[in-house]
Records
---
Amino acid sequence: MLQGWAIVLVSFAYLGVLFAIAYYGDKRADAGRSLIANPYIYALSLAVYATTWTFYGSVGRAAATGIGFLPIYLGPTLVVALWWYVMGKMLRISKAYRITSIADFIASRYGKSQLLGGLVTVIAVIGVIPYISLQLKAISNSFTILLHYPEIVMPAKAGALPFFQDSALYIAMILAAFTILFGTRHLDATERHEGLVAAIAFESLVKLLAFLAVGAFVTFGLYQGFGEIFQRAQEAPRLAALLTVANTGGSYGTWASLTLLSMLSLMCLPRQFQIAVVENVDESHLGKAIWVFPLYLFLINIFVLPIALAGLLHFPAGGVDADTFVLTLPMAEQRQTLALFAFIGGLSAGTGMVIVETIALSTMVCNDLVMPLLLRQRWLRLHQRRDLSGLLLAIRRWAITVILLLGYIYFRAAGEAYALVAIGLISFAAVAQFAPAMIGGMYWKGGTRAGAIAGLLAGFAVWAYTLLLPSFAKSGWLPLDFLTDGPFGIALLRPQELFGLTGLDEISHCLFWSMLANIGIYVGVSLTARPSVAETSQATLFVDVFRHAQGSERSRIWRGSASVQELLPLIGRFLGPERAHEAFLAYARSRGLQSLDQLRADADLVQFAETQLAGAIGGASAHVMVASVVQEEPLGLDEVMDILDEASQVRAYSRQLEQKSRELEAATAELRAANERLQELDRMKDDFMSTVTHELRTPLTSIRAFSEILLDDPELDVAERQRFMGIIVKETERLTRLINQMLDLAKIESGRAEWHTSELDLGEVIREAAEATSQLFRDKQVQLVLRLPQAVPCVVADRDRLMQVVINLLSNAVKFCPPHEGRVEVGLAADGDWLRVDVQDNGPGIDPADHEIIFEKFRQVGDTLTGKPQGTGLGLPISRQIIAHFGGRLWVESEPGKGATFSFVLPLGASAGAAEQHERTMAQAAR
Amino acid sequence: MGKRILIADDEANIVISLEFLMKREGFEVDIANDGEAALEAVNDATPDLILLDVMLPKMNGFEVCQQIRANPRWQGVKIIMLTAKGRDTEVAKGLGVGADAYMTKPFSTKDLVAQVKQLLGEGA
């Protein structure tokens, strides 16, 4: 016989041990020697996932569906494989921005939205309270059952007893007190509870050992191991069906959806977020957890089927709830200590869950629901309160109490409506609604606040309609025809066969429709809604956390002014003045400053203050509070994006790259052009040299040939000798002329020619040139006509050079005029600012294609009749250079058969002087 | 009967010197002042040897040489190219189009005469 007081005593002793561990853990943490700086403790604390629902409920589910209990553990086992990726990022984000809860996480991601934080909190509270009820029920039932030891009596229906006799109420109150002691001893800026984590890890160990002990006892004590149990079950027709995987069409779908659901809930359950993210002290612990946690799940599940089968074999008549087999089997075998140990194991599972879940919820309720509302109530004058840390703690304590009481009330009201497993799954489905906004927000910058709110609301509404309301209907609170015929008899809207979707179990059905609505609306609204600046910057900070969290971007996207005298009291009001002072001093020291007076209230400090505050009251409220004491200058979206947005950075970078590559291309093109020009010049020089060589060799050939002829043959007759010698002399003259002209041209081109400028009368120059060439005209009997006005304005030029030009033009004209009938006319006239000279002949004319060629060096255009023209081929190029030197122009107008007119113009007056001046300067510079 | 030599050059004084040299050696001499005239002259009376300047008006020496070599009737005609451009490529080009010898201006009259005689098989 186990006395009630003995059970209570053992229970309190156990809770006392827990508290001692927690207390020791906190002391160690304060001393800086963290007890939980150990990856195994982290992994064990994650096993808060396994509640009484696992401890008792798995066996119950196994007794009903065989291995149908497994998906709840397969999901987490599968999802931890992704942890390194997903949870690692979540941890980094949460640490960088001091995230205190899943509501805070989602609210912060979407522009520190208080509305979103509140919404997540409400959903979490509504979704999780039944789950807490479940724990209360399990603890209460196990207590009642154990109380009747060694008799096995199923507890009375919930609500059958007056509440003051109901052990569940006392359990709820004790747990509330315990949670308050554990979770709200002081207000931590990081919202971390090291002692609590140590205690939870211990609890995980206890419940695992208890379950293994019962399992080992059943399997190896009652039977001869697994083999015998399965064999016996096989022989019992009633049980054989449990050993097959699935016997209905929908059960594969059920497996898949349960697996998915448990995957999501492992990340979205407030307590899992609390333990895995908020309480994490070292990101590297994740590495161990990735294999220790699945191992834990494996161990705690290994005896589920044997216990279930043994229970069914042992209590063939029914009457014993399969959910209690873990406890009732040792009792039936009169194993008092083992039964007590099993009870303690169940107590561990229940208290662990309740404590962590309630702390997580109370943080959310306080930070994301109550504080934002209170802070808006001006009449409360909260802004003037010097220290709000007491208020915060009070709110949390009340939140814990209220949540547990709500859990109790739900238990009283609905405790018998469903088996344990169903309530757990309903909770899972509720918190799974956080997944799109949370996971989407970590990887998709496009997710917006409006999208998250709309998606959450839609998912939550579908959840309430397809799971919560039907559960009410099944509890008798709503008429059942709501379930069977649909609201107002509209069959299409039947909550669990929505739009005619049948063939799914209720959980899969809910998951399908709620996720469809949630994800669809989240993505749809996000794509259409334009995000605000805050949302955009938060999105980038979250998605690119590995790039931004350590950097200074967060401070850079804030601009404004603040003062330490305002920030410090603000933080002090929530953390307590002393703690705030310490935090600021530590911050100042980390910056190499001696005292707070030296601290400047720059963007970094504002950021620091907000982060400190976020740890206490959540990101959204912290932002509002800090904003109330600083003057923030709103940044434009463009500015923020310029600072933050990866795309714009990449864009800018690629723009620069493009620019550079364009510049490079341009430079390459220029180089290529220059190179081509050089090659062209080289080729031209080569051609020029080749041409010059040719021009020099030709007269030399004649000279050498005739010299050798004369040398070889002294007997040559006088006339011939005379003729040959004449040729030699002429060719020598030609050679000399050629060399002179080449040197002349080279000098002009290189700017080293000497110019003797003076004012001169061009008419006089022409007359002199005509005089100089008169012999040529006479020889060929060509008529020369000069049409010169009496007086023309003077030009400033080199007289000898101009003479050279005119003589060149006249001798060219003569050369191409037909003998005897040739006629050359020279005109001179002032034409505006120019003085113009025309030399017109009646020769064969020049093909227009050759009008420019004749001004190139050595490019003579031959007369087909007379063969090769006389001359060096340098006269016109030189003339053109001379005229150009004085700012004028030389050109030809001609048609074949109609003679040719060579004309040049020279500028009048000053411009010539300017050109001269310019030329002199250039010449000096060249020297 | 004396061998016939065609002188194709547009430089009057060079033509005079070549004509004198060839006549002194007892050859009959024809003159052409451009490429086309040179081909006509070959057509009128096939010479035994052509002194062919490269830089001829209307049709340059290379083309004249090619045209002559393209005609089976004129396979026996010896061609000495003369050029004032002394570059190696010119020499190679000249020999490439089928010239028998190539001489750079200004040339030694003795060498030229020796070359002509050698090609005509009269020995030096």
---
Amino acid sequence: MASSRPSDAIDQDPVEERSAENPRLGPIGFARFLWRSLTSMRTALILLLLLALAAVPGSLVPQRSSDPNGVFQYQARDPEGFKILDALGLFSTFSTPWFSAIYLLLFVSLIGCIIPRTKHHVDALRARPPKTPARLARLVGFTSVENPGEAETAVTSARQLLRSQGYRVERYGDSISAERGYLRETGNLIFHTALVGVLAAVGLGGAFGFTGQRLLVEGEPFTNVLADYDSFTGGSAIDPDTSLQPFSLRLDSFEPQYTFTDDAWRPLDYDANVSVREPGGDWMPATIKINAPLEVGGSQVYLLGNGFAPVITVRDPDGVEVFHGAVPFLAQDANLFSVGVVKVPDGLSDQLGLEGLFYPDAVATESGALASFSPLITDNARLTLMVYRGDLGLIDGSGANVYSLDTTDMEQLTEREDALVLAVGDTVDLPDGMGTIELEGVAQYVGLDIHHDPAQAWVLGFALAAVFGLLTSLFIPRRRMWVKVVDGRIEYAGLARGEDPALAGAVADLARAHAEALERRMPS
Amino acid sequence: MTPETLAAWSLLGVYSASAVYVIAFIVFVLDLAKRSSDAAPAARPVAVAEAAGSTAVLVEAPPAPPAVGRPARNARVGLALTAVGLVVHVAAIVLRGVAAERVPWANMFEFALTGTGIIVAVFVFANLWKDVRFLGAYVTGLAALLLTLATINFYDAVGLVPLPPPLQSAWLGIHVLVAILATGFFSLGAGLSLVQLIQNRREAGKLPRLRLMTTIPSAENLERLAYRVNVIGFMLWTFTLIFGAIWAERAWGRYWGWDTKEVWTFVIWVVFAGYIHARATRGWRGNRSAILALVGFAAVLFNFIVVNLFFSGLHAYSGL
């Protein structure tokens, strides 16, 4: 692509422009024309700019990959606009055909440039520095001084001097031709090749990796098998039934720390204390923190969320337990006011649905409604429940979401004013003599992300190689230098290949160093 | 001293630095005005009025060569003032960090505080290397404007609060600082590219009355300078992107996820990659590449201001 031409050449006249005028372009000629157009610097540049432009919508509308809730909200807010944007693929910009087309063409163009340039560079590495030009006077930093001694002495010492400065040197008659900075082009090629490597590694990582989420309540175990995940996205090249390493994980305790500063409760630290067991091993303690994931079974386990899970027991009128469990509630604010849903499909006269609000540290506001004063569980912890009975929608699937209650086929038994209110340890009656409900306690839970990407280290490796290539290609000057002894004078001049603002200074330095070297040789 | 006292001293430093920058800005503007009048005789168009009806032909003198020699007194005073402002500014940044017991770039006010400091620092130190005092008005104006706006709007948004767990990482120090450094270089580069565009028009004979431009390097030299500054910015931006990806992997469980801020980091990187390539493409050197550099800097500002304030995403821990 662009800087892939020999660095002394500003994009050359494309040959294809002439062939394009030829009406009798055969299929092979046409293919050649397409290939040349694609690999020209101008095309690469335009593809680059298109790529930047095409990425912008990905930040303007919510993306399914990074913000699925935002996409739902957009759809609810503006269903008509949603249809149009969705047809264009804007809610998954980075996997649309048009976005993929741009970057794939860019990379094809890139490869089409790397290959011939690598060949060109390998030839240049083998070749000797070019013949000294007949006249140096028109080149950069031309300097001419009187030769204090023999021509031969001046030439040999110039040769030594240039060589010690890292130049590749060649003698032509009474002149030295020198070149250095081959690393500039090497770096350039490494940079562009490494970019191809990054793309390939990202692709492989996607195909051979997986990512899954699991919400884990204190005391609950998790085993790394497909069935134990709440959600799971696997790459196309893996079989989730056989590819997962069966380690086990248990949340022993979750310890958040808060501070009250600047009029608000703020988190200081989250520690998820877990036990881990790999196949054939024992349970080992470990801690997962934000910014410090756990490495186990070739995967990383990240702590991405936390909250409270009220432990609820529902009994029928005869006192028989029909539901028991810790129900994770989703936090709504910094003080962990949380909402959640309890579904009791069996064991009572009707299916029962409960919409719950949980306040870890409840205080009554002026309006009489509750709010949470802090994110810490206190004696003031309260759970309020709105009761519904009827069809939970579990059969037709409308009630599949565990965090929401579909109340279309349900009868509301309590209003907001007479909602059930429970403190920890309380048991209260359900309306209409349906039974009782008890809040036994409140457990904490964590949201874990488990991620496996076998190519991740490769991505980093290629990225670092790209940086190395970039640094050398941008900051190492490629330059030619000539020292010529002619008619009792010594001439110096240089030629820049690419950006080289320091060239004139380098020629002057060379002339000075050479004069000193000659002086040392023959003290007068 | 309590953190609150230190923060109050820091704020006093912010106001003082802004005030000094405003004065420096005025002096730099006076310098530009003076350049304009001093340069007048050299660049005055030779008017040959042909009294043939309504047509008058103006024959221009060729653009005068850049004035060499000691920069004017106002330019020197402006730079000295800017340096004084910078010292106060740096003190304010350090005090802020001491007061908060962490790096002073963890929320919107602090980004602006440290960011403008670095923009000015890059300008002041660039002057040791090349005389770019003609950008003094641009740099001090930009710094004073951003610093004042950020202080008025965001100083009270968050107090001296401890870092939330996601920001508790050495990468906060590295990734964000490198991003701010890159921004400093990009702003200087954008100033040079902007002047380059104007100079280019003048050299084409389109702005015969803009005489002060005769005291400023040629468009070609400006382009070369802008390139060298922008390339450093690009390098730093590459590091911002890679460090950000490493940190994202630790904190969010993936190294790249097209978060809004990631999208814009990518867009900026690609635009400046385009800029570098443009300088090696026939027909794209000069004006076009300068425009690309300006588009890139506009994206940097957009990323800092609009994305931080109006877009949602994972980079929102700072609560402004």
---
Amino acid sequence: MEISVSLSSLLEEHRDELLSDWAEALRSATTRRADLISDEQVRVEAKQFITLLARATRTGTADLEGSDWDELRGLLGDVSRSRALAGFTPSEIATFVFSFKEPLFDLLSKAAADGGNAQALLADNWRANLLLDRLGLYTTEVYQSAREEIIRRQQQEMLELSTPVVKLWDQILAVPLIGTMDSERTQVVMESLLEMISETSAAFAVIDITGVPTVDTLVAQHLLKTAAAARLMGAEVIISGIRPQIAQTVVQLGVELPEVTTKASIADAFALALRRLGWTVSRNEKA
Amino acid sequence: MNRIPVLRMGRFLLVTVQMDLDDSTAAQLEEDLTTGIVKHRAEGVLIDISGLDFVDSFIGRTLVGIASSSRLLGAETVVVGMRSAVAITLIELGIAMNGVRTALNVERGMELLSGLVGGGRPGDGG
């Protein structure tokens, strides 16, 4: 797609006219959010947009990834990000670009009427249309990638927060699991637990699932894998904190946990581990 | 070809793997161990794999094979010092190594082995 170079000069010549038309269109648009952003701010951004669009189309290349378009992409990126943070929806953001179509087409048809060339008008209209569509979609892309970035960061933070391995006693470790277990989290739990086992020479590891809301076949399988890996390293895993509903669900699912010791509470699991290691807990007589 | 030495320690055979095993070395080890058990009338085998940080399904199966054939020959096998990465790999490969006893380090492995064969078969040795 080539852009007619005349678009650039047209934009520059009629900038003020375009801007006032566009500002009017933006003010009357149904997607206007006067509560989130001032008309003045929108006008400043619109003015920048027209200036940069004129500059970008001057060379005639229509490759939005090209260096000619860097400045305009930067502007749209900033606009999209700041509005996303302010609480705009993606369609409200994209409408900022799309609403430029009407004043631009008016201008194009006026210019073509002066020149009297209907064919050229159609072609220019179509090219400008495509261009604005792509710019509008670009704002949506930026919006989406900004959102995804936030989600990724939160996931990472959750991963780091949620998998502590604590030492209960000499040779006894505990991992209190909280929240839904997916394969990524299970991997982190498994790795940090096995690391700790070899670091502390632990003989028992208690995995407490009191904080796991649901146990399905996948979670059960993950737990089994962890237990089997720990066994290979020479430690025994005890699973505790199985709530009555979860026990029933697991049985109904037909999942079996063979070769893994299970206990109702972490206290029971701890007591079992102490007993196996040869400890006895006794209470002093009151003096 | 590399050959892993098999050491005799009283009633037990001791093997320390200090490098990554390739297929032929692993197969050779299996053969050396089984003949060693018969020759020395060993009652237990302790394999220390703390130096091993790479495994594939063949190595995993060889370890299981060593344990099974040792049991047929009347000796218990304990694998000690498995690294966490190795353990995860074996589980992901689906080799649960059922029937192979494990311990965290050589010391605990020896305790386990002594416990396993401790009271058994006085005098006849196999």
---
Amino acid sequence: MSAVAEYAPQTAPQPAPAPGVNYLNAEYGWKSWLFTRDHKRIALLYLVSITLMFFLGGAAVTIIRLHLLTPNQQPGEGLVTADTYNRLFSMHGIVMIFFFLVPAIPATLGNFFVPLMIGARDLAFPRINLLSWYVYVIGAVITLWAMLAYGVDTGWTFYTPYSSRASQTNVVPVIVGLFITGFSSILTGLNFVVTTHTMRAPGMTWLRLPLFIWTIYATSIIILLATPVLAMALALVAIERVWGVGIFDPALGGDPLLFQHLFWFYSHPAVYIMVLPAMGIVSELVTCFSRKNIYGYLFVAWASIGIAVLGFLVWAHHMFVAGQSMYSAYIFSILSYGVAVPSAIKVFNWTATLYRGSIAYQTPLLFALGFIALFTLGGMTGLMLAALGLNVHVHDTYFIIAHFHFIMVGGTVMAYMGGLHYWWPKMTGRLYPEGWAKLAALIVFVGFILTFLPQFVLGYLGMPRRYHAYPPEFQVLNVMSSAGASILAVGYVLPLTYLLWSLAYGKPAGPNPWHATGLEWQTPSPPPTENFAVTPVVTQGPYEYSLTDEAEIAG
Amino acid sequence: MRRKLPVDRAIPAHQFDDLEQQREAATFGAWVFLATEILIFGALFAGYSAYRAWYTHDFELASGKLNILIGGINTIVLLTSSLTMALGVHAAHVGRQRALVWLLASTAALGTLFMVFKAVEYYDDYRKQLVPGLAFDPAEWSEPGRVQLFLIFYYVMTGLHAVHLTIAIGIMVWMIVLARKGRFGPDYYNPVEVSGLYWHFVDVIWIFLLPLLYLIGTHSILDLHF
Amino acid sequence: MTARVIPPATYYTVFAALIGLTFLTVGISFVPLGEMHTAVGLTIASIKALLVILFFMHLLYGSKANWLAIGAGLFWLGILLALTLADYFTRHWWTY
């Protein structure tokens, strides 16, 4: 959209903020935070919320992994009962997916940096931005209350007819909470799409956008087009429960698979909602810390769109054993191989960017490298799962669990940590302690491998998922996995500690501690409320490190 | 921050460079939102289509029992409301304040009329034993289960449509309040335009619900009743 | 103001067409067409919808980006319908 190029650069500069005044100290008091329209403050509101949800979801899985230290084949053995176990893994899935992974990068780093990276003063709709946070909080409160008060035991997938007929747990309140939360997602996505189209700074053409913006844009498309379908799928389950009408009831001729089709139409693209922004962060990190332009900008940008589009064509690969038509299964299997291609393109291009770059092994890059390694491994197991024959063998086993945790934890969470560390100086004006951060990255990586690699073996050997008990011969691998989880937990608590510490005691960061390109680094740290004193005019691509370095050397 | 100035001195919100950018962003945002609405109804269309593919004959039989007279009249009502809405946006654009208020009020009134007729129709459906779980006689049908599936989707789809129409009427009322305060004019009428987009969208959904739900099979003139 | 003012006459013409098409679609349902009712009904509905979208909703007169939004919504709806129905139409092709 070339509309922005027609606007004259803002000729009257904003009144220059008083020195030392930034978005954090411009106003004080709880009202200035809870009624803010500043995208940066809203991003921090989200940051606090999703961090809380991350540790709640982590608490649920801590209990699970402790319980799974023993085979629990005798009744009464183990930390929790079977019913409680079902509620725990349901809570872990619901909290981690809907309240952490989906909003984590878009609503925190996206909200904070999209306007900065495109040279705008705020998002297109600041009040809608604030509304999205309130909707998120309301949805979270309702869902959490429902899960903690009595729980839900359907798994995060709510399959019918168990969820619609048989389950005696708090299904409807949880659905109401999730339905509401979905709107938070949609409002955020809407804001990003409109902002990207209409508010780019003069000279910021589409092909000069940072790749993080491309991935946020692609993510927003997915959010907008997939979330409504989930809303109705869940609503139909609620209707069936509340009014006793059999929408998915085979006795009426209904089809339980219809729910699965509608559910996975969202939930497969949802995994791309979760991983695309992470890929965007990785693009930012590999360019900055190898001081090189991205290899194949056009390919990486279009691969993001490709992932968004192709990601919608593969959903029934989650349903290969559910009973769909064989011919439908063939189609989805072939398409599932196809969706791996744009992801692979990105991995090749990141590798080519790093090759012969001037590598600085700072913490953000360590996390990015972790992402590339673990996402690639996890992705390859995804290709294995696309094969119908193999899928039948490992469906609903720990193989699947390992696969998606490699992508979500080894991938998304790692990239999120990388982005958090990379942009922390910009958001807070403080540097985190590099030594501790590197240690945390290492601990996370080791803990992750120990937690999830054994799960591939477990799954392949046949241990089913969502079972509170398992055959005794699987105990060694389970203990390894739980031990790894405890290490992983340390790796996550460390950043919480030193990042908070840095707020008070960290060294002041300048505007550009990484000497990175990108508009967000051309403004003070922390940025003033209006982001830029004068609207920037863009004259070059986003990763012209060679030009930047030449200019710096020339003095 | 938008200050509430008289109509011809509106200034853009701080994140926008000028009113034109603000207007384009708001309108584009409305269209993007409508795209999400396509998918929310689309989910129901998909479920409905799946069952219809399997149970075409039973869906035909059940559809034949719906009140096509009210359905048709309601379609005309909603189309007329779309006309008054479009004319209302036009009135705002050229600064005709009184016409604007009357047209917005007519739009809201026609929308309300639709809801009244819908309520009459739902009551008629209840009396004809077409409400699964409440008033339904399985003995009437050779495949009561499949008929129930049709009826459930009929109520959910028209119900979701009614929810959207209610929201749209609420938005209309809000616009009327603002219009009466003289907030809109040739310089600034975008909220009316955006409200219009939402209203028309609700109309478009009904345009598709009519053939999908009411017109599947062949009807008989003897069926017509209010 | 850069947006064009659309003359009310355009709206009245479109309205007349919409009413006419409504009478047509309801009227046709009294004619025994068998399998064709669906196709005919949806075709007429699509034309009506197009009239509302292009003229009442100003898609024809507005920014090109709006076409992208509605096009994406319709395209994705197509994906949802096509791939879901692919299962439902072929589910009973192969019996064990």
